[in-house]
Amino acid sequence: MGVVNVTPDSFSDGGRWFEPDDAVAHGLALLAEGADVLDVGGESTRPGARRVPLDEEHRRVLPVIRALADAGAVVSVDTTRAEVAQAAVEAGALVVNDVSGGLADPAMYDVVARTGVVYVAMHWRGHADVMDDLAAYDDVVADVRDELASRLEAVVAAGARPEQVVLDPGLGFAKPGRDNWPLLAHLDALVGLGRPVLVGASRKRFLGHLLAGPDGAPVAPAARDRATAAVSALAAVAGAWCVRVHDVPGSADAVRVAHAWTAARSTGDHLQGTTQEGHESAPAG
User: What torsion do the CA atoms of 260, 119, 186, 240 make, to the nearest 10 degrees?
Assistant: First the structure.
């Protein structure tokens, strides 16, 4: 999933693709680089970001979604608002990526149920301006799993089919750096809920702090792409359905490696007493 930020203030590339023509060109470039889905968003969810008016979000995303869908792309709209989601689906979006998991707008589940759209429900506890104050967990893996299970139950209870729903652990949202690693290391806990899992680690703060130099300053967002690709490979091996990234080629290659790796493991499990080269292995002891 390639990121198309139609915003002036996104943390990683704010303003670069703010004009509709620039955003469309960027989306088509991501598609050519190997993206399967283009995620178009008009409201930054970086820590501390303020909400944009509804009509402004419409103005930003709808022309871009329409143009990309007309070009044959599978388009996702990144929004927490039911009205934006409905308009985006009418403009050609096939996926609604809701970072609030339906908690920001009670009408969202009705849109999902009526349209039959693929719905990404992310783990969320509050909007960007307050989320860092909501990062208290007893067990981050168990708590996120249970809260996502509740979102799945709620959207299905509202009339959506379980097959429409994708779950996202919400890396970086109401989670300090240390809490993101257990979620990635135990991604199987979310996969075990029986729905596809989307991982969005791209360029996030916890990677910037991991790569910090001797002075402790986190590296810039664009310098986090290689670490993002590593997460993409590991997430794919762990069973993730999709990774959401800013730099598509690196993660596309990483996912290909992961698929080849897992395929080789599944076909090679029967080999016993020989090495991969076909020679007899050394006797034990």
Answer: 0
